[in-house]
Structure formats: C-alpha cells, structure tokens
Amino acid sequence: MTDIEMIGIEDGIVEFHRHNETTSCKYDYDGYKILTYKSGKKGVRYLFECKDPESKAPKYIQFSDHIIAPRKSSHFHIFMGNDTQQSLLNEMENWPTYYPYQLSSKEVVEEMMSH
Predict the structure, then answer these.
(1) How far is 58 from 81, CA to CA, in rounded Å?
(2) Which residues are in the ZinT domain (predicted)?
(3) Domain boundaries, the chain
C-alpha cells in the first residue's frame, strides 16, 4: 500500500506526489542487488540515496522492474524508506506498482492481468 499518487523522474530528481503535496530529492545511484526470492525467481533492485538532509522525500529508494538486463519496462515497483537500504531489501510483502502515466486505465488492467 502507498499513498503516493504519482512519481516524476527526470535528471536524477525524483518527485513524489501525494494528495496536494510534492516532495523531491536528487538521488545518487548506490549500486544494485540481485535477489533470489522464495519462489526461486531472481530479481534486481537498483538502490538510490537522497543525501539532502533538508529533503522530506524518502532517504532511500529502490527500483525493481523484474528485468536484470537493460530493457524497456512496462511497469516498475519502488520501495522507499528512511531506515536503511538493507531494511528495504528485506521488504517482500508490499510492492507498490507504477505504470507510465500515458497508459489508459484499460491498458493498466491488461498489463496487470498479464503480470
């Protein structure tokens, strides 16, 4: 579950839109981790850190798009928090999913059903 309605990403700056409030930060790439899930499937998480102590955006974010090699993704999951990267890597229950804003509701449903 998340209360974030939209995420904007451009030039390393990530904006989080929730209700009528927007927070943002320039995130620095912090590497990646390949995870093996209980199912035996593998996934990758790309790690980023906000180093601006004044920002109200999450300190740590991780992207997962189910794709280990570079390729265009139809959706992605983002994990975010202020504790540690490791605590986010341990998150296996809550997978907020985001789609390109150009997709119609019907296209999002079709993509979700094929996922």
Answers:
(1) 5
(2) 2-115
(3) 6-114
One-letter amino acid identity for 34? I
Element (DSSP H or E) covering residue 111? helix 105-114
Kindly give the pairing relationship between strand 97-98 and strand 76-81. Answer: antiparallel
SS3 68: coil
Joined tokens for residue 86: 């490791």
Say what the alpha-carbon torsion angle 85, 86, 90, 96 is, to the nearest 10 degrees. 0
Residue closest to 48 by CA, chosen among 30, 24, 63, 23:
30
Q: In the numeric block, which tokens belong to residue 40?
A: 């035996």
Q: Which two structure tokens, joined as six digits, stand for 85? A: 């990267």
- 6-114 CATH, one of 3.40.50.970, 2.40.128.20, 3.40.50.300, 1.25.40.10: 2.40.128.20
